[in-house]
Design brief:
With about 300 residues, this protein is α/β, with parallel strands linked by helices. It contains ten helices and 15 strands.
């Protein structure tokens, strides 16, 4: 420990929308904590919400929850922060073997997908419609396809993410939605599937699409609220639709208890990740990383450290 620096660089928010690179002392270690030198940390849509002061954010804070680092020469993955060093309870540190640092930042979002699969519990032969082709959606689609679902359809805007969905073989059917006017295509989905789908996953974070998503569920089907929405967002569903069609509505949030299973899935190549993280930045370029997520030029971004 004597060879460690006394301070480190970290990205710190003083309040919503105001952040900077600061020098802070290394984290203090409690009993059973380990100190990790950070190699990479993913940037996701959640960080956009934290930037705005949403998503249970408390300031001041050092954000970042998709962290990869090294400890005693061994690879580790954990929930962490945008800083050169982080301290974590030993029980929340997980070894990886076959994944590079950048792709390994996907373990946390992949654990959300694994938790989603666990919540959905699809029946053998289920049909799935997923709205959106973002990182966690692409991984959840793969899991559903591998775990009992006979027909997985992804409906998402044309472009980078949809192209990657096809490259990853994430679904069986792909419906490219026009960015100018997707309504005719959405209506066509209903015409082509008059009885609806067993499972409908709303993974875009669009409250308008979420409100309509229930209309694609078959009787006895499941609607999965999987996207990240603004705190002020509201939906309105007719109780008679939920009651009469016996629709099951479930939410699926982040999950750390699925990390061991998730690490196994990614380490063994069961979930394809190549190309999901398509942009990397230095810590000083955090603003550019956020903007790449906001303007959708990045499918997934990551901060990398030397």
């Amino acid at each position: 420990m004597s060879s460690l620096p006394k301070s480190m660089k970290a990205l710190q928010y003083s309040k919503p929308r105001e952040y900077g690179i600061v020098d802070v002392p290394l984290p203090e270690l409690r009993d059973d904590d380990v100190l990790v030198k950070v190699k990479a940390c993913g940037v996701c849509g959640t960080d956009l919400h934290i930037h705005e002061g949403e998503f249970i954010a408390k300031f001041p804070l050092i954000p970042g929850h998709e962290t990869i680092g090294v400890w005693s020469g061994h690879g580790t993955t954990l929930s962490g922060g945008f800083a050169e060093y982080c301290a974590y309870p030993q029980g929340k540190v997980f070894k990886i073997k076959n994944i590079n640092d950048v792709d390994a930042t996907l373990i946390e979002p992949a654990s959300c997908a694994c938790h989603g699969l666990d919540k959905i519990r699809p029946r053998l032969g289920s049909s799935v419609l997923m709205f959106g082709a973002g990182p966690t959606g692409l991984m959840l689609a793969q899991l559903l396809k591998q775990n009992g679902c006979s027909q997985v359809t992804i409906a998402a805007p044309e472009g980078l993410k949809m192209n990657l969905a096809k490259e990853l073989d994430a679904a069986d059917t792909y419906i490219e939605l026009s960015r100018k006017d997707s309504q005719p295509q959405l209506e066509q989905i209903k015409k082509d599937n008059p009885y609806g789908f067993d499972i409908v996953v709303e993974a875009t974070g669009s409250v308008k699409l979420l409100e309509d998503a229930i209309n694609y569920c078959r009787r006895g089907g499941t609607l999965v609220v999987y996207g990240v929405y603004h705190n002020a967002d509201r939906v309105s569903w007719a109780p008679t639709k939920i009651f009469g069609d016996e629709i099951r509505i479930i939410g699926s949030f982040s999950e750390v208890h699925m990390f061991p299973q998730t690490v196994d899935y990614l380490d063994n190549g069961k979930i394809k990740t190549k190309g999901i993280v398509n942009k990397t930045f230095k810590l000083e370029q955090f603003g550019e990383a956020l903007e790449s997520i906001k303007n959708k030029s990045a499918i997934k971004a990551a901060i990398v450290f030397d």
